[in-house]
Every structure is written in structure tokens, then in C-alpha cells.
């Protein structure tokens, strides 16, 4: 289900909210030019936030959304989740 019509499943979005510090760190590792200010997210301003990320990273919004979705939609034991990569 996608209540926000943002092409990110609600379960993924809820999980993302719970792991926000982890998400910010992973995004800043992927796109080294991102700052804490770039990762500042205001409720209801998701389109503006994705626009800032698009401008800063040079990647299309759909590619950025796809990365977030793929990176954080796995199960808690998924080896591709950043929190599970530290234990290798």
C-alpha cells in the first residue's frame, strides 16, 4: 500500500522513519557530498526534500527513491541492509 502516493511502500516508509539515523548515514556514504542539512526532512515536504537530493547528488528522483526502497525494504536479516553490513 502507498498512502502517500510517493512510490515507496508504507511498510518501507515506516521502517525508514524508525531507522532514520542509519538511513542518513548510509545515504551520506553513498553520496559523499550530502550534509546533515541535506538530510533534514520536514513532514509534508517530501517532494522538496527529494528535489534537494536530486540537485545535490545529480541523480534522478526515481533513482534516489529506488535506492532508498532497495536498501531499506529488506528483512532485518537481509545482508544488504546497512545495519547488517557492520557485522561482517
Task: Name the descriptors.
88 residues; mainly alpha; 5 helices
| Radius of gyration, in angstroms, nearest whole number | 13 Å
Mean pLDDT: 76
Helix proportion range: 40-55%
Ends: how far apart? 33 Å
Strand content: under 5%
Number of helices: 5
Overall outline: globular
Organism: Hymenobacter ginsengisoli
InterPro entries: CsbD, UPF0337_stress_rsp, YjbJ_sf
Region (Disordered): 1-20, 69-88
Domain CsbD-like: 15-66
Topology, please?
Elements: H1 10-18, H2 20-30, H3 46-57, H4 61-72, H5 82-85
In brief:
The protein is an all-alpha fold and 88 residues long.
Structure in words:
- By secondary structure, this protein is mainly alpha-helical.
- The protein has a domain at 6-31 and 46-74.
- 55% of the residues lie in helices and 0% in strands.
- The chain has helices at residues 10-18, 20-30, 46-57, 61-72, 82-85.
- It is globular, with a radius of gyration of 13 Å.
- The relative contact order is 0.16.
- The model has no long low-confidence stretch (mean pLDDT 76).
Amino acid at each position: 500500500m502507498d498512502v502517500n502516493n510517493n512510490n515507496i511502500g508504507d511498510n518501507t516508509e515506516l521502517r525508514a522513519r524508525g531507522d532514520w539515523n542509519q538511513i542518513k548515514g548510509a545515504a551520506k556514504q553513498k553520496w559523499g557530498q550530502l550534509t546533515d542539512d541535506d538530510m533534514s526532512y520536514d513532514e509534508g515536504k517530501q517532494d522538496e526534500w527529494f528535489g534537494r537530493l536530486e540537485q545535490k547528488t545529480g541523480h534522478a528522483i526515481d533513482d534516489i527513491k529506488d535506492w532508498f526502497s532497495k536498501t531499506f525494504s529488506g528483512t532485518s536479516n537481509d545482508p544488504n541492509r546497512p545495519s547488517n553490513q557492520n557485522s561482517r
